[in-house]
Amino acid sequence: MFVTYLSNKFNIVCNTFLKRALGLMFSAPKCVILKTKRESIAGSSIHMLFVFFRIDAVWLDKNLRIVDFKKNMLPFISSAAPRRKAKYVFEIPSKLRKKIGMEISLGEKASITEI
């Protein structure tokens, strides 16, 4: 399953509790999407422990609308949570988002492609 946003495809790879908890810990820079079972603020919060590069986090609700985003999150900060309930979280290396010219705006919609 892929989520498409502004012609960029992102694979949903973290859809279990353990995969969401590990996220980008100890990994090389890559894009991941975290999927929770239901919309919530606490359930879609993220941490940067043992993540060694800056990321941009984008939170989407169950309708795939952007409800919050944070740019240039520093490695090893404790956590970040959206202002509104979210079901999906894009974690995008900040350098990659800048390189591909992806701009993020509240309220924009993404789409899901099933494979």
Summarize the structure.
With 115 residues, the protein is mainly beta.
Structure description:
This protein has 115 residues and is mainly beta. It has a single domain (2-113), classed as Protein of unknown function DUF192 (Jelly Rolls), CATH 2.60.120.1140. The chain is 11% helix and 39% strand. It contains two helices and seven strands; from the N terminus they run E-E-H-E-E-E-E-H-E. It has helices spanning 17-22, 94-100; strands at residues 2-5, 8-14, 32-40, 55-60, 66-73, 86-93, 111-113. A seven-stranded mixed sheet has the order 5-4-6-3-2-1-7. Strand 4 (55-60) and strand 5 (66-73) form a beta hairpin. The protein is globular and about 30 Å long. The N and C termini lie close together (6 Å). 28% of the residues are buried. The model has no long low-confidence stretch (mean pLDDT 85).
Q: How many H/I helices?
A: 2
CATH H-tier superfamily: Protein of unknown function DUF192
| Unreliable residue stretches | none
**Helix and strand string, N-terminal first?**
EEHEEEEHE
Highest CATH level, the class: Mainly Beta
Question: What labels would you give this structure?
Answer:
115 residues, seven-stranded mixed sheet, mainly beta, 2 helices, globular, Jelly Rolls
Topology:
Layout: E1 2-5, E2 8-14, H1 17-22, E3 32-40, E4 55-60, E5 66-73, E6 86-93, H2 94-100, E7 111-113
Parallel strand pairs: 2-3
Antiparallel strand pairs: 1-2, 1-7, 3-6, 4-5, 4-6
